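User: Show me an example of a complex going from sequences to structure tokens.

Assistant: Sure. Here are the input components:
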Amino acid sequence: MLNTILKYAGLFILLIAIQVLLMNNIQFSGFVNPYIYILFILLLPFETSYWLILLLSFITGFVIDLTSGTMGLHIAASVFAGFLRPYVLGLISPREGYEEGDLPGLNAYGFRWFITYVLIIVAFHHFVLFYLEVFRFEYFFRTLLRVLLSTGFTILFMIIIQVIVIRR
Amino acid sequence: MRTLLNFLKKFGNIFLFVLLEALAFYLLASKPNYHSIKLSKALNATTAFVNEKVNRASDYFTLVEINRQLLNENIELRNAMQRIYLNSEISTFSVTDSLYRQQYMYILARAVNNSVNKQKNYITLNKGTLNGVRKDMAVIGPDGIVGVIIESGRNYSIAMSALNLDFRLSARLSKNDYFGSLTWDGSDVNCLNLNEIPHHVSIAEGDTVETTGYSAVFPEGIMVGTISEFSVSGGDFYNIKVKLATQFKKLNNIYVIVNLKKEEQQEIESDIQITR
């Protein structure tokens, strides 16, 4: 138990550091802003209780908000992502259900399963985040394009991070 | 009691979700309070510190560009000096001490963190209240405007970049002094929009746009950029795109401008509003 907590604390710090030091510096005329920190919420073990997921989402969003000076923005988006997680997991669960002790990562139920899982949650997270950030309907389609492009890149980076770092 | 517990068991998580979202929106809507500022200042100081270390390494790659900017600035200062010398040779040039005061003071700072890829971009500077940087001071680069300070800590401060949907600045055409307001629409990191210029004014591509100094934040005549494109919209005003003189992607050395007479101006302006 303690081991798990330590492992996730390490993952938390690592993801925040990658987000702040690398991802926030990607310059591609404003259309690609990957937010990989919600990988932390995505990777929590299957049996994590719902209230804990929500609270951890809140804390994650809060820390990101502190580093980027946008109080409330990332909280709203990541709590929403945490809220969706159990429903999405239920929607795409394999026939025999999930095994306890597993974590919903890249090598749990195959690549296709992981992509579906991540795509739905990341897309919703980015949708909430980008529209809240702009907070006007004036630039609707451009914001939509930003959501789509950033979602793609976020997923790409999430896969890279998992392959390089988390397997170890 | 049991029904209440059952109810909580069933909907408790939804309640928690709604509660947390409500808190998020509350934080989003409210002005930053003491605790959040304290917290984010502490965190920003750490991230700014790390960023500064990273910057120090990447600085070497931009030395040529910075050198060019400095040379250009030196030339401009030399020219300005010539003008001053000429002025002082005119025998009627007199100075009354109590009125002739320095109005602006420049503080050299460096951008240690800067983004251009958001809709609301901010710049972190490595100077804070200890160096005299305060809220609402203008920030310019060697080539032109950069932004406005919105918060200052002890050693670092944060400026709202001109590339921010909330950025507003009054600016004028330098050739005929017609002024309008500058905004950014979030699409092009090299262009701002100049609004409220009536379409009977003659403008051309390449015309210089500069600050007006009406806001008591920016001094008069600071370079904004040149007109790159304009069209007549349905109303009485032009749609003007101004190509920024400052390269926001390569921001490095910047200056914070202290307006020493700002309080006086604002005081007298607020007096008028009361009697109006």
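The lines above are the inputs; the final block is the predicted structure for all two components together. Chain B has one domain: 33-88+105-259.
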